[in-house]
Structure formats: C-alpha cells, structure tokens
Automatic annotation (TrEMBL):
Protein name, entry field: cytochrome-c oxidase
Topology class, membrane: Multi-pass membrane protein
Organism, scientific name: freshwater metagenome
EC number from the UniProt entry: 7.1.1.9
Molecular function (Gene Ontology), one example: cytochrome-c oxidase activity
Amino acid sequence: MMSNQLMHRSKWWSKKDVKLTAVLTVIISVIVGFVGTWFHTYFMPAPASETMSEVIKLIQVFTWAASPVVGLVGAMAVVTLLTKGHYGDNPPPDADHAVRNSPRIGALWIVVSSILCLFAVITGLVVLQEDSKAILEDQTIEVNVTGQQWVWNFDYENGARSNVLYLPIDKPAIFNITSVDVKHSFWIVQMGIKMDANPGYTTQVAVTPNKIGIFDIRCAELCGLLHAYMQNKVHVVSQGEYDQWLKDQAAFEGAGA
Ligand SMILES: [Cu+2]
C-alpha cells in the first residue's frame, strides 16, 4: 500500500518504462515512416498523370501521419512484453494502471485521433477535387467505357469503337463508365484513377495524361473466373496521331457495319 502511494507521488513521465516507451516510439515511428513510404512507392509504377503523382504524395503524407501511432502502439507492446512479468495470484490494484485511469490521457487520445482523421479527410478531398476539375473544362475528350466479362470496350463520340484506349497527351479525358453484366472497376494503373463500373448505371471519372506511352488498364473488382485477365492497354499519343487513329477507327467501324 505504502509503495503504491509513493509511486503516485513521483511524476509518471520520470518512470523508467515510460521513458523507454518514449524513446522506442520515436525510433519505431521513424523506421515505419521511412520504410513505409519507400515500400509503397517502390512497387508503384512511374506516374503518367498529375493525379498519380498526387496520389503517391498522399500515400507518403498519410504514412508519415500514421507512423507515430504505429510507433506508440509498438513501443507499448515491446515495453510491456519486456518489463511486465506475471503477477500470479496477486494482480496489481486498478490504481496502478496510471494510463488507463487517467481521464486526461483519454481526452488527449480522442483529440489527437480526431485531428488525424480530419487531416486525412481534408487532404484526401483536396486531391480528389483535382480529378474532377477536368470534368468542368471545355476542352475534353469524352469516352464511354463499358465493362463486361472479361474485357473493356471504349466508344468515342465519332462512333469509333475499340478495346484499346487511345488518348491525346495533356488533354483532360472524361470516362462515362458502365457495365453490361456484373460489377467491375475501371482502373488506369499509371494514371491513379479507379472507378466502379455498375450495370444499369453510369459513373464518371476524369484524368489528364501527361506522358506519351502505353499504360495498363485493369479491372479492380473481382468479377468472375477470368477477372485477373481483364486487362487492356491505353496508348497516350500526340494530338495529331490521336486524330488520325480516331478517323481510321471510325472508318473501320463504318466499313464493318
Ligand atoms: Cu472485372
């Protein structure tokens, strides 16, 4: 009993295990921050749109914002496992649980979590907003995207139809997305956009490609046996090359009809 009272008289932050937890929190946070941001971006393709660059930045910011939480929980787990023994038949009284019994720490934790959540929501919305800005612009390409088991089809305003997507560089493209059978998800991997394709429904997403090349289109919603093979390509080309392709493709469709 006496030792209990003595313990509460000494400041909690001067306790050995609290100091150890604090040091470990910093070390684990820094490791998780560095490894987390490196790990994520290492496996991500080089961006082919501003949206993708923003998404990668967002992942890094979120990883750094979350790393102190991982650090604190990890440090507490390590310190508890290393320093707290088995009490046997004499468990410590509730008064010993300085952290659990402190309303101040509880309140602080609610405030910190709320701030972290708000930060994630606001920064996320700011980046999403960048996507939809293109929809409001006049100079846009509109493509109707139709998902089906297990291919994507693209219909252009001039009647051209293809399962290879062509886009001119530096011009916003709007996709009107739907599906003829089950739910799919239209994903241009290197451009950082992904949108559900629902039967009987049209969803929209926009992006401005900023790199010439051939990139991957995938389905990001498990949609049946050959879901993994539901892959098409997008060719990002110059405006002139795009216009020519569109004309040829429409003529080809016309000849076939
Ligand atoms: Cu699919």
